[in-house]
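Supplementary Methods. Inverse-folding protocol.

Structures were first reduced to a discrete structure-token string of length 317. This string, shown here, constituted the complete conditioning input.
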């Protein structure tokens, strides 16, 4: 794969879909080789791998340059250096493939990922996005957990209040993404989720139930930044997630978004510290208390209560 010229690339053949891989990076030297190698190892060869770097100082840039074509290093600051959304947008503009595959620098793919996705898309003409299930890998212990993906037929309207689509699993049609304005760079968080909603409002999605991506869980993962994520909820509640809704429907959707995001924040908080997450789950219920919506919230609080009773001294102890 290394050293191939774009003009002679296998995926340039007439009728063969072309795929550009977009990898945002910043000080990702310990991990990015696995990401790039997994992209180059695809059974459906990718056209190019675009690494958009945000000013790494740990050797990431030299490592990326060592690959040569079809791996290209781009500068996030070309788009103002505003973070991951800006980096992805640099990739979107620079890409020459018909399809864009997003891959975070600390994740990697199964060799059959893009091939399976394109085969699935071929069976669903008009689809603009395909996503897959994935494996969640704990850094250090290498413990893995299967994360299923929502079936594309059932992802809507659930996608309005919760994001079940892993960014590194997505294969999106470039023209559709540009049509909706690409990633919003003004959001505090949720830039990928907000993009999927805008795309789904205009285009159908498809999904692959196989786990074709490996998501590496790091202590500093952006998804574990609770304050950032919670600070971003008001913006999405007032804009994309409630697009096309008004009156009571809009109010209900906003309450559900808050309830869902507070619950998921509670799960993250519980994983990061003993006894964490309780206050966030209570806040979730305050926004939408009805047990038909995310009934698992009541189970979580019951587990907290049982654990508290077990650890409390008895009157006779």
């Amino acid at each position: 794969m290394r050293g191939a010229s774009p003009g002679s690339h296998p995926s340039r053949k007439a009728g063969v879909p072309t795929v550009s891989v977009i990898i945002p990076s910043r000080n990702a030297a310990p991990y990015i080789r696995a990401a790039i190698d997994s992209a180059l190892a695809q059974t459906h060869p990718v056209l190019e791998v675009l690494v958009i770097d945000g000013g790494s100082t740990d050797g990431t840039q030299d490592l990326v340059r060592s690959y040569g074509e079809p791996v290209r290093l781009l500068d996030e600051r070309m788009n103002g250096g505003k973070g991951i959304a800006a980096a992805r947008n640099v990739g979107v503009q620079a890409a020459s493939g018909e399809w864009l595959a997003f891959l975070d620098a600390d994740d990697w793919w199964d060799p059959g990922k893009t091939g399976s996705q394109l085969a699935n898309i071929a069976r669903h003409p008009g689809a603009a996005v395909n996503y897959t299930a994935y494996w969640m890998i704990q850094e250090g212990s290498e413990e893995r957990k299967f994360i299923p993906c929502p079936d594309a037929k059932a992802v809507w309207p659930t996608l309005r209040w919760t994001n079940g689509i892993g960014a590194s699993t997505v294969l999106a049609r470039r023209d559709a993404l540009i049509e909706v304005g690409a990633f919003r760079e003004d959001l505090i968080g949720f830039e990928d989720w907000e993009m999927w909603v805008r795309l789904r409002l205009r285009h159908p999605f498809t999904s692959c139930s196989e786990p074709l991506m490996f998501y590496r869980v790091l202590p500093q993962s952006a998804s574990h930044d609770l304050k950032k994520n919670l600070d971003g909820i008001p913006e999405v509640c007032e804009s994309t997630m409630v697009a096309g809704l008004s009156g009571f429907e809009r109010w209900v959707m906003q309450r559900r978004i808050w309830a869902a995001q507070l619950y998921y924040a509670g799960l993250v908080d519980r994983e990061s510290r003993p006894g964490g997450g309780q206050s966030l789950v209570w806040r979730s219920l305050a926004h939408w208390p009805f047990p038909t919506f995310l009934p698992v919230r009541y189970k979580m609080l019951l587990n907290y209560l049982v654990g508290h009773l077990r650890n409390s001294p008895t009157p006779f102890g």
